[in-house]
Amino acid sequence: MFQTLFRQNAALQRHQTGPLAAERRRYLQHCAAGGAPYGQQRKRAKCLLWIAKRLVPHDRQGINAERLHEIVHGRPSPGPTMAQVFLEFGRPWLKFLGWWRTEREPIPFAEHLESYLTWMRQERGFSPATVHGRNWCATNFLRWCGQSGRDLASLRPHDLDAYIATFGDRWSRISVASMATRLRPFLRYAASIGACPRRLPDAILSPRIYQLESLPYALSWEEVHKLLASTASASPRDVRDRAMLMLLAVYGLRRGEVAALRLDQIDWARRRLWIHRLKRRQPQVYPLQRSVAEALSRYVDTVRPRVPYPEVFIRLQAPHQPIGDGAIYHVVSERLRALGIKAAHLGPHALRHSCAARLLADRLTLKEIGDHLGHRSTAATRVYTKVDLAALREVGDFDLGDLP
Length: 404
Description:
Blueprint: H1 2-5, H2 9-17, H3 21-33, H4 38-52, H5 65-72, H6 80-97, H7 110-124, H8 128-147, H9 157-166, H10 173-192, H11 221-229, H12 236-251, H13 255-259, E1 266-267, E2 272-277, E3 282-287, H14 290-302, H15 325-338, H16 348-361, H17 366-373, H18 389-396
Antiparallel strand pairs: 1-2, 2-3
Helix pairs in contact: 3-4, 4-6, 5-6, 7-8, 8-10, 12-14, 12-16
């Protein structure tokens, strides 16, 4: 690895015989496999050697942010600019080696939380998004229990009221209802294993949320066209983002489904697209629309980095790894904000709502729209009936004649 970065014998000798040579070589090979450019690799190698010379044997047991800051800013100091460079290159290397230690506040009753997470993943088969949301809610509640000196085994209904009151000034009625929906299953599980009183989950009373009380946050189809038009250039970012946005708008995919899309799910020959629906937990086949196929093929053929990952969408900058669903949210949100589009929510789900509203305007049935979106029941699709403005105008224009 060092031979490809350094041609002069003296420099090559320094890197080959310097401390932690094997660890530095292994990380450099990892970065090269991810598509790191030559110039960045040389700079990274120099920084890693500089840090390796200042590590002591005990650092192999674990390094936290304070210790790395001490190493980088020690005497002689490299200066503020170079110190920041050393931090940016050093931290990922230490994480790659497994030496990085993050100081985190311990979670009270962590054994019950871990058991709950395992139960959700292995026995119930919940999606990662569901597990993440319920984990966040349970963790927040357990931390509050620890900070307020409450024992999970002796909780009473008034303790739950105190928890909600603690955050009541920051939570809306819908947020409180969502918290209750996520916390109740955890307490039911905890009660089933004897970790809390058996009747405690029934004491969580959430605010009444009326069915279909809120409007969906769909963008108009003109705004969707405006969003797609912002990706008209040939820049790698625009080419990639256009393919993402087409999947979100045309098929109404969830951002997690776009992030998880693999190359083998695109059947170019028969013009089919296989999507693993997160909620249905089964694949769904779509016809591959010409506009979507063109956007995808252009991205895959001209922009997508040549990496061994099966996922379609890869980071544009090194390390070239599959992007997460959070990155897809930022792509949509930043573009909508840049266009000055106003909406209640500026994320990928707004495009899903726009897709549903468009299908409704084309007079598809709720069953057909639900099948297209991957809903498990028509109840989840019913919310979109409130944005059929054309039908509402027909009702508004109805003439009652001379009736008193």
